[in-house]
Amino acid sequence: MTRSATFPAVRQALLPSVLALLVAGCPTPAPVPDSGVVEVDAGLPDAGQPDAGRPPRDAGIPDAGFTAAPIETWCASRALAECGRDLRCGRLSQAGFAGCMLTRTTIASCDQIALQRGVGERRTQYLESEAVRCLNALAQDSCEEAPLACANVFTGLAPPDAGCLAPTDCNAFGFCDPYDGLCPHRCRGWAALGELCDGFTRRCDPQNGSCDNNDAGSAVCHPKKSDGDPCVRYDACGDLASCVDGTCITRRAGPGEVCASRNGYPFCTDEYFCRQDPPVNGVRPPGTCERKSGLGGTCTGPGSCLPSLRCSTLITTGTCLRKGAFREACINYDDCEDGLYCDAKSQRCEALPDAGGLCSFEITGYRCAPGNTCAFSGTSEDKCVAWKTVGQECGYGGECLSNDCEYATLPDGGFGGTCIASCSQRADGGL
Hints:
Elements: H1 7-25, H2 74-89, H3 97-104, H4 112-120, E1 124-126, H5 128-140, E2 154-156, E3 163-164, E4 174-177, E5 185-189, E6 209-213, E7 219-223, E8 241-244, E9 247-250, E10 252-253, E11 258-259, E12 267-268, E13 272-275, E14 287-291, E15 298-299, E16 309-311, E17 318-322, E18 340-343, E19 348-351, E20 372-375, E21 383-386, E22 393-394, E23 405-409, E24 415-419, H6 423-426
């Protein structure tokens, strides 16, 4: 989970040719119906449209689909498929495509070096057939849900206590701990049932256990809990459920399933809303997940349109529209295309700021133009800074292209952070 400090130079030199090859051999995603956690009740029927009214296919990619996905270009291929999906789904305009590619090919987004080393050094199995399926699903399927094939692209082979550079390196008996202060990192075995856990550096095997408090108040690994089981910790019920009012409940409901049956849970998936009847004695009954409105459909504020659209109003009944382009009118923080933000003063979609521009939460939500990051000051004067290279001073890892900021005594005798190369480039091979 790093951004390489020297990778930018490699990327600048190779990415244009890599992208040219990819663009020549990869598909533009075709508009198709898609499925999708927003628990806003639109309360209104949708427009009956099958999709978000996406713009015509673009990005110059042939329709034949991805037919190959070598590990050497995995990150660039995945970025192309993801940015193409954002373009297809209306979140991104052609003007923002290059910025999307730049951001998604950093090591923070996809550590090409670590993944490629994992395969070459036999810590990871890479299934190119699943990679092709994953890329084509990103290009053509849901605008929100991660394709199932993407979970099968990498399989970890390294056992507990072996070295690792990426989460994909470790086998099913443990996980790669990126916060252990080591390089390479180590695969940490799952805590056994009854052993102490914290859900962070000591984790229970998600296949058969979960971390919850015992009678003495200590967090230990319990047998895996099911819907309706008693619980204490919010995260005690596994990845797909939450502990609400002392009982496990499923987090998400699918199309046509019951939603908001207890304290708002389960939520509907992103492209659906929970349609509920009016309150009875001040309490709203459980609802049913129904699809949000498509382009031209009726909406009632944020969250009532498909995720790639915006509602024309904040409160009253409105119409679902495409995301706002540069300088178009906007009224809500997420009304604009990716790479833009809704300026509260002008109520227009403006470009995210470059280095030196203000990026506080109330202005851009800590977002900056591609190639920059928001340097937190703890005040409303947070400013964008260009990504920093090895040897430059940093406040935190996100300011560095390597995403790795090491604190130590500086040459001038002071104490501060300096950007260092990513672990995937520093590791000496002693894995």
